[in-house]
Amino acid sequence: MSVPLTLLGLLERGPSHGYDLKRDYDAYFGQGRPLRYSQVYATLSRLARDGKAVAGPVEQEAGPERRRYIITSDGVADVERWLGEPVPPDPDLQSELFTKVVLALMLGKRADSYLDTQRAAHLQRMRELTSFKQRGSTLDVLLADHALYRLEADLRWIDHTAARLDQLARAVRS
Amino acid sequence: MISLGLRLVVNGGREAVTRLVILTVAVGLGVGLLLTAVAATNAAVTWNNRHAWFWTGTSSVVPHTAAAGTAPLWWHPVGDFFDGRQIERFDVAAAGPSSPVPPGLPRDPAPGTYYASPALAALIHGTPASQLADRYPGHLAGTIGDAGLPSPDSLVIVVGRTPAQLAQTPNTVQVRSVNDVMPGTFVPPCYGPHCGRVPSPEGLAYFPNDAGGASSSIDLILAVVALAILTPVLIFIGTATRLSAARREERFAAMRLAGATRGQVSLVAAIESTVAAVLGTAIGFGLFFLLRIPVAGIPFIGQPFFPSELTLSLPDILLVAIGVPLFAALAARMALRRVNISPLGVTRRARPKPPGAWRVIPLLAGLAELGFWTIHGHPASIPGQIQAFASSFFIILVGLFIAGPWVTMAAAVAMARWTSRPATLLAARRIGDDPRAAFRAVSGLVLALFITTAAVVAITTQDAKETTPFGTVAQSNLMTDQIAAPSPSGSRVTAPGPGAPAAALAARLDAIHGIHGVVVLRADPTLTIPGTFHDLGVNTFGDNPGGSVPPIPADVASCAQLATVPDLGHCPAGATAAAIPAGVFGPNGFFGSQGTSGFTWPAANVPAARLDALGVDTIGVETDGTTTAIEQARTVLETEPAYPVLNAPSTPEDNVVADVAANNGYQQLANVVILVSLPIAGCTLVAGIAAGLADRKRPFSMLRLAGARLSTLRSVVALEGAVPLLSVAAVAIGTGFAGAAMFAREAQQHPMVAPGIAYYLLTAGGIVISLAIIAATFPLLARITGPETARNE
Amino acid sequence: MTSIEKNAVTGNIIEARSLSLSFGSTPALRGASLAVRRGEIVAVMGPSGSGKSTLLHCLAGILVPGEGEVWFGGQRLDSLSDDRRSALRRMRFGSVFQSGQLVPELTAEENVALPLLLSGTRRGPAMAAARRWFPVLGLDGLERRRSGELSGGQAQRVALARGLVAEPEVLFADEPTGALDSVSGELVMDLLTAAVRERGTTVVLVTHDARVAAYADREVVVRDGKVGTLTGSQP
Fold it and tell me: What is the pTM of this model?
């Protein structure tokens, strides 16, 4: 999840203060983990240094530095390019699951009950997401669906694996 | 609930409306046929009962006690022939105005007048008098009404005489009532102490020519015919209803899921079927009334009916009008039994168990019983015989129905094992999966084919038995007139006619154009000839198989006359008279089966002069076979005053006609049953096939998409229909032949005679029609397995 | 305490105890037990052929188990006659299945009203009760359509309306979204859960789809004819 590019994309909407950018980031993309101000300003400075944005004049008001930032054409191009690239399929998401299963098999432990426990956890998470959807806004729903589908994909891999545990066990122990 | 059911019927869309129409038409056809069969049965009973008065005064019926003061009616029945047709003639003389009057007549005919049936009156009018009208003294006083005639074609005449005339005529009785009940069984005329008891020993030992049928056998035969037509019709209606109900099982499953009880679903199902059945029944009644008059003309029993006799009694109407819709409703209810069990619909249907091989046991048992009677001999008494054979045939029939599913399945299994064609395999598996349903469609055929095959074979065997094979054409043209009254023992005349008038009579006969010769057999009580006669090729005359052969009584014939009729045998050289066995000629003799043309009779030691004085036993007239000659000779013989008519002079041809007329009638009936039931069975098959097609729309469409040709699918459908049809037909026909063969050997004492070409044509034709009906579903197949059915909705 | 009171205390509205059932020689359930509390939504999951639909059919009184007992509201359900069980299905249970539930000859509103009509409710009140559901489920204007003229999603919502029209105590759902695309399926599940939460209806929901099961309060798993949970607690 690239914070600089996200901030840059938010900036493309129009000249904004760092404060506004942080507020919008937290609202749309924060998911309960707000950005630190320092991280925001540091990111913005770096973007300006790289020529993706320019800082406007400092506006004299009470409080911390309030500068408006404006996106450059380089910055626009960067956002364009980033949007156009597919998200690399993340191979690492299953790796912990996979590692645990293989280890369990190697050690002769109950891999199937571990998978059940994982299933239960996934389903509990899916329940939470589903009721969240029923209360949330459209964007919340979109995000929750994304998570739900990935959890479902996990579950399907779990089902698939569970059906082949014996085969796996033999391969692993040999 | 009912309104819900009606709404389901009305709103069903095109498919449901089509179903409704088809079912209605099916019921309409079936009911129409049924009503015709019932009406024909009623007409047949009426037709039969109209023969009752022919039996007046005979020993076969018990006369009513008449009202006090009823004057007697002198009654002299005699059969007659004209041009191969039978005429019933009754000479009557009323003793007083209160004498009984035969039905159809306004009053008893006065002496010198006669009442004739319209057909006979037309014949009398249109034929030269010397051939017909001269037989009947007097003039036509009027025609006999329908009430006295079995059929519009009947030839009946009631001649008025004086009591004095009839008092002197042999074979005459006085009656005080006209008979109105047919005899239960026909007891053949029997002479001598060994005869069984007859209902009226003092009555005449007379059989009318046109005797109708013994009421008990008529009832049995009509019941069997009605059953043979009713069964395929009911099966057809039942199948159509059942299939139409089953098509909706998914809807009913949905209702059950929503919480409908079995009763509620049955009610809804019954409503559609009942609506169709009520409509169809109304159509069937309409059909019947439209077709009544043309149908009456069809000679089901060898004679046409009066249209007014093709009636339905009120119980008949009520039974059909209420019974058929009820039957359809029940059929629909039965059809839904399996869905009623599970509201989950078709997915949970378990395969029915295959029929077991034990099913052939009843059939084999019935055949074995028949075989037992064949080998061990049948019971002596007639009721015992009827019981034995009827029970065997009944068990065989039931056995056929029970064995049917197994036979179908066995055929399917054999087909599956021995084929490499996919179509055959598909068809065989499907039949094998539900052989009961496949058999049900053709089970109506079973009854029809078995009964008609057995009946036709029995009839042709009976015909062969009774038909006298004629040695020569000349013998078939020989007319014999029995003058003398038969004796109780049957072989010796007791009352020969006067001798003198015979010469003049013979001269008159010779004068007729077309008469080749005349022989007068005269009675000589002292004359006998040996029982064995080497020229004849058989060892004995009469009924003495094996054992001693006593000499038998003989008549005398003049050799001069015998020379004019060479087919009756020859005199020894130089003899003037020959001795010929008494009873050789005439309806009770065995003349026809032996033939006598090559024989040389022994000489009789009777001088020529004395011949003319001897009493007359029989007169034989050799004709040229033309109608004019025969009928003129007959008229001359019948009008000879010296020799009153006992039985009409007849040629062997006439006697055969009389004997086989009844059999022909039954043969007609059998043909009608085949003609009617085979197409119905075909229609039933089609209903089953159409429903099966609708079931398999999707798999068949998939097959087509996967590259199966339409002709392959057609083959599947054709085989599914043809295999049960043909295998069941083969078993039914084979069993019919087997049963008939055993029956022929045992009960008829005659080797089985194969039926005539008509039977084969009809059966083959019926099967072809059924197969053609199956083929008629092929266009439907093309339409419903188009690719649009295979879409995933 | 009587069973009724016990159930009132424990809050179990419907309960299966050691059900066993075989189709021919194939066993579908082998001692399956499940207790459903009043007002909850239970997801019954498991691989295909595991017997979850069979369990549902037994709970709903559609099938009678060979062994074991089904209790509803304090009385034995499996020993009732077919007519009594049909009556229950009409008035106290509702059902939504994957397909094949609507009678094609009837209009949508008649289909919805069917349980009421079958129970003898007069046409007027029955149709009025049915029509109330149409706006709730987004089916305005479709009252007079035949079921063959509805899309899959619309037909399932009609089926849902039928399942709820009699204000049942328990709603049995078997793969209610199985034949639907994801958007229609989500709509159906959203409407279903909204309606039952509002009325406190208990739901037994059979599904193999985890996203559908996520609408439930808890899940149980049927494996080889027996009921268990993923965490090893009591089903």
Answer: 0.64
